[in-house]
Amino acid sequence: MRTTSSPPSARWRAWCWPEARTHRASARQEVAPPGCPASGQARREAPMIYLIAAIAGLAGALFGFDEGVIAGALAPLRRDLGIDPVAEGMMTAAVPFGAFIGAIIGGRLAAAAGRRKLLLWSAILFIGGALLSALAGGLITLTLARLVIGLAVGVAAMMAPLYISESAPAKERGMLVSIYQLAITLGILGAYVVGYAFDENWRWMFAMGAVPAVMLFGGIFALSDTPRWLAMRGRSAEAKAALARMRERPESDPAVAAEYEEIRAAAAADEGRKATFADLLSPRVRPALIVAMGLFLLQQLSGINAVIYYAPTVFELSGFSSTTTQILATAGIGVVNVLMTVVGMMLIDRLGRRLLLLIGFTGTAVSLGAIAIAAATGSPSLGVLALAGLVLYIASFAIAIGPLPWVMMSEVFPLDCRALGMSIASLVNWGFNFIVVFSFPVLVAEFGLAGVFGLYAVVCVAGLAFTQWLVPETNGVSLEEIERHLRSGRPLRELGRLHAA
Ligand code: BGC
Question: Which of 32, 112, 366, 389 is the most exposed place for a label (fewest CB within 10 A)?
Answer without folding.
Answer: 112
